[in-house]
Automatic annotation (TrEMBL):
Subcellular location: Cytoplasm
Cofactor annotation: Fe(2+)
Family: Belongs to the KAE1 / TsaD family.
Residues involved in Fe cation binding: 113, 117, 310
Protein's name according to its UniProt entry: tRNA N6-adenosine threonylcarbamoyltransferase
UniProt enzyme class: transferase
Cofactor annotation remark: Binds 1 Fe(2+) ion per subunit.
Organism: Microbacterium radiodurans
Keywords assigned: Acyltransferase, Cytoplasm, Iron, Metal-binding, Transferase, tRNA processing
Catalysed reaction, written as an equation: L-threonylcarbamoyladenylate + adenosine(37) in tRNA = N(6)-L-threonylcarbamoyladenosine(37) in tRNA + AMP + H(+)
HAMAP family: TsaD
GO cellular component: cytoplasm
Its job: Required for the formation of a threonylcarbamoyl group on adenosine at position 37 (t(6)A37) in tRNAs that read codons beginning with adenine. Is involved in the transfer of the threonylcarbamoyl moiety of threonylcarbamoyl-AMP (TC-AMP) to the N6 group of A37, together with TsaE and TsaB. TsaD likely plays a direct catalytic role in this reaction.
EC numbers: 2.3.1.234
Length: 342
């Protein structure tokens, strides 16, 4: 079909996402999150996430089908994230997708989660142009990609060597005594702080690091630096200026993300930058990205947040593009691959 009706299943982390698209048109995007269950651990607990997917999938599928106003039998294909992500969480989605595809006798498309994030942009209704550089930042990944063609040519330029950007926000929030998830909390606290108050390190940004890690990220050194700075203040019996620490930390993360993304645009002669992932909610990140990109002559695209955070619609959208390009469905023997390359 030229405009295939596709249901996408996303369970790579803590969001159970079911999305339905007709070609490039979004019909429904249902998301159930187990974030609240992870709050007391300060981060996503894989086993808890997997169990939550098992319980949330069926109701989410029913809700998405109802919202789209379709019947399951109308579907042309089923799509599912097969990686990268948490192995147990992925397996729940893959198992459900296989069961659905077999019972409906429809083709099944296994897709890459990161490429799915890039495909989300198609659903905004605006014309999408390639090549583009894509910066994907969430609690689970921090990746810089060069997209020459969505279905056939996506190159990983670099990724985090340790924590994901969102994870860094969550860990620093914890150190500052702010609740989980920490990203929005730090964003709020930083609003009244001075981003230049403390000069925290920019990971993998020294000339000696850039040779081998030009587009890679590292946030563990920054985390240690913030923790040490706070300890020293406390040891000296001085109060911790939470707003200044939050603003300075946020500035360090944002600076390195935007600097490397625009460096990739410049090196590859690509005047487009696509942003994706839950950390895109960060106000300072959007602001600095838009400001510096404008100065560099780079057009920035930021899909609505509901399409930036993990969701099933982006997975369905990618499969619809694959179908339109004539790609064959996946053979049913595929598994979940927590480190699936693009
Ligand atoms: O894409 P997402 O919803 O899902 C997962 O990665 O699971 O991203 C969630 C992450 C969390 O680490 C959260 O702290 C971070 O995105 N986040 C933010 C902001 N809002 C959410 N980080 C920085 N600033 C924000 N405003
Ligand atoms: Zn994601």
């Amino acid at each position: 079909a030229a405009e295939p009706l596709v249901l996408g299943i996303e369970t790579s982390c803590d969001e159970t996402g079911i999305g339905i698209v007709r070609g490039r048109r979004l019909l429904s995007n249902t998301i159930a999150s187990s974030m609240a269950e992870h709050a007391r651990y300060g981060g996503v607990v894989p086993e808890v996430a997997a169990r939550a997917h098992l319980e949330a999938l069926q109701p989410a599928i029913e809700a998405a089908v109802a919202e789209a106003g379709i019947a399951l039998g109308d579907l042309d294909a089923v799509a599912v994230t097969s990686g990268p992500g948490l192995a147990g969480a992925l397996m729940v989605g893959v198992g459900a997708a296989k069961a659905l595809a077999v019972s409906l006798d429809k083709p099944l498309y296994a897709v890459n989660h990161l490429v799915g994030h890039i495909a989300a942009d198609i659903l905004t209704g605006d014309d999408v142009e390639y090549p583009t550089v894509a910066l994907l930042v969430s609690g689970g990944h921090t990746s810089l990609l060069l997209v020459r063609d969505l279905v056939s040519d996506v190159e990983m330029l670099g990724e985090t060597m340790d924590d994901a950007a969102g994870e860094a926000f969550d860990k620093i929030a914890r150190i500052l005594g702010l609740p989980y998830p920490g990203g929005p909390e730090i964003d709020r606290a930083a609003a009244t702080g001075d981003p230049q108050a403390i000069r925290f390190p920019r990971g993998l940004s020294r000339a000696s690091d850039l040779a081998a890690h030009r587009y890679d990220f590292s946030f563990s050194g920054l985390k240690t630096a913030v923790a040490r700075w706070i300890e020293q203040r406390e040891a000296a019996g001085e109060p911790v200026p939470v707003a200044d620490v939050a603003a300075s930390f946020r500035e360090a993360v944002v600076d390195v993300l935007v600097t490397k993304a625009l460096d990739a645009c410049a090196q590859h002669g690509v005047p487009r930058l696509l942003l994706g992932g839950g950390v895109i909610a960060n106000r300072r990140l959007r602001e600095v990205a838009l400001e510096r990109a404008a100065a560099a002559g780079v057009a920035v695209r930021i899909p609505p947040l509901s399409l930036c955070t993990d969701n099933g619609a982006m997975i369905a959208a990618l499969a619809a593009e694959l179908i339109a390009s004539g790609a064959a469905p996946s053979r049913l023997a595929f598994g979940a691959d927590s480190t699936l390359p693009v």
